[in-house]
Amino acid sequence: MDESTRNAEFDKRIEEGTKIEPKDWMPEKYRNQLIRMMSQHAHSEVVGMLPEGNWITRAPNLRRKMALLAKVQDEAGHGLYIYSAAETLGASREDLVHQLLIGKAKYSSIFNYPTLTWADIGIIGWLVDGAAIVNQTMLAKCSYGPYSRAMLRICAEENFHKKQGYEIVCTLMKGTEEQKKMAQDALNRFWWPTLMMFGPHDSDSPNSATLLKWKVKKKTNDELRQHFVNITVPQARTIGLEIPDPNLKYNEETKNWEFGEINWEEFYAVIKGHGPCNKDRMKARNDAHENGSWVREASVAYAKKKQGKKVEKFLNVG
Ligand code: BYC
């Protein structure tokens, strides 16, 4: 089959909604776009452990500590599923991790903001995991089989994360004036960075057209952002929180909550490495990688020993 026939066959399969599996033929651009996006996603899960990990030792009670610990462990698991899914495309995990550690690979902008108070942990669970669910529910229907299946599992866990976050914020909003202020302050700091998670406006998104054509993305950045705002504004109002946006207003005709302009200069500065915590995050990941080198060495040695025994057994049988 020549290249153009293969491409046409591939496009037809996408059009019909058939899932693409690792051993199927796929255009190199499809493969590379998926590796780009999935590796960024896996890195985000791993770096995403850092802002919340910062509060594990300071959680206000044992119940909160256990839930936070479980959530952070879940994020590590999500990273592993997605790295594995990226490996099915021929990417090497070692190389992907290396790209992160040398500061070349991107990860979600949101994780470059600090967690200053306990309320930030509630707000992250509610907003950041809430935004992740909106994005990942779409990705669970994407055209690449291993990614879509990883998303199904991950979304189920993210739902629990969102609930634990919202419950923390609800508890604070039923507390003292100081606790209410703390929740409002956390919302003020995280609202706009959360909206940035969905990426640039559609008109400024270089990858969207290709990803939409191949049904990796099934909705645009702006569509998902709008959906997130529509579901989150009533949740904030119900518990007495104010969204920090003077331009926020409900449009009766479109049934959308219209919102003000995002600070795109801030967004691009953060993704270029100049956010408040980029350097700390990279240092923490590099330190963890170095401190964990003995685990990698031990696993390689164990695998080699096991492999050696298998060869020996094979030779003996032979
Ligand atoms: N941060 O053409 P565009 C989570 C980059 S949730 C950093 O629109 P695309 C978690 C983009 O990569 C977060 N970079 O890109 C939750 C591109 O750069 P390159 C992770 C961003 O791919 C709770 C350039 O800007 N989720 O992990 O069409 C707890 C132009 O953008 C961002 C995912 O990764 C950003 N916010 O759309 C713990 C979901 N936005 O690569 C963990 C999978 C854009 O061309 N990813 N950029 O140099 C996606 O759905 C899409 O990749 C995006 C961006 C919507 C993020």
TrEMBL record:
InterPro entries: Aromatic_CoA_ox/epox (IPR052703), Ferritin-like (IPR012347), Ferritin-like_SF (IPR009078), PaaA (IPR011881), PaaA_PaaC (IPR007814). It holds the Pfam family PaaA_PaaC. GO terms for biological process: phenylacetate catabolic process. Transmembrane segments: none annotated. GO terms for cellular component: cytosol. PANTHER family: 1,2-PHENYLACETYL-COA EPOXIDASE, SUBUNIT A (PTHR30458:SF2), PHENYLACETIC ACID DEGRADATION PROTEIN PAA (PTHR30458). This is Phenylacetic acid degradation protein. The lineage of its organism: Bacteria, Pseudomonadati, Planctomycetota, Candidatus Uabimicrobiia, Candidatus Uabimicrobiales.
